[in-house]
Amino acid sequence: MNIKLLGAVAAVALLAGCAKPASTAMSTGTGAAVATGPAPGSEEDLVANVGDRVFYPLNSSSVAGDSAATLDHQGAWLGHYPQIAVLIAGNCDERGTEQYNLALGQRRADSARDYLVSKGVDGSRIQTISYGKDRPVAQGNDEQSWQQNRNAITSVQGHNPQEGTGASS
């Protein structure tokens, strides 16, 4: 009797050991598995796994706190994909003159670029642009919207998330 019980327990343990772990792969119906999620090294991969934007306080272009952590992740991500070049777009909230915001947006883009270069990313892989206040990501005349619009957004070259969005320039 004990031998039968031991055999049953061993069989259950063996089956449990053979169980497949949860997977993010999907079957195609042909027996082949297809990985889900963004393609490695894509814009979607950058956004989903690293974060594509950093935020700045009012009238500031200094990288600090959470922004530095995000740029650290971007630097590591760019280290995994040395063939990829990026564009960093500096943006501002709607307050201030057009000239002031274009200059501040450029300082923000440049500070993000300089931070990545200081972390070992080749500067020739990074282009910058300032949109000033012309391409807000959040509409509204309140502090929450303004905070979202004071940013630098990194995108894989050839994919600009701000194209066709925001206010007209």
Verbal overview:
By secondary structure, this protein is an alpha+beta fold. The protein is 40% helix and 17% strand. It contains 5 helices and 6 strands; from the N terminus they run αββαβαβαβαβ. The strands form 2 sheets. It has a 4-stranded mixed beta sheet. Strands 1-2 form a two-stranded antiparallel ribbon. The protein is globular, with a radius of gyration of 24 Å. The N and C termini lie far apart (84 Å). 28% of the residues are buried.
In short:
With 169 residues, this protein is of the alpha+beta class. It contains five helices and six strands, in the order αββαβαβαβαβ. Helices cover 40% and strands 17% of the residues.
Largest sheet, order of strands side by side?
3-6-4-5
Overall 3D form: globular
Radius of gyration: 24 Å
Q: What is the terminal-to-terminal distance?
A: 84 Å
Share of helix among residues?
Answer: 25-40%
Q: Find the count of extended strands (DSSP E, 2+ residues).
A: 6
Beta strand %: 15-25%
* Strand/helix succession: HEEHEHEHEHE
The residue ranges in which pLDDT falls below 50 over 5 or more consecutive positions are 8-25, 165-169
Average pLDDT figure: 84
Computed structural class: alpha+beta
Number of helices: 5
Sheet with most strands: 4 strands, mixed
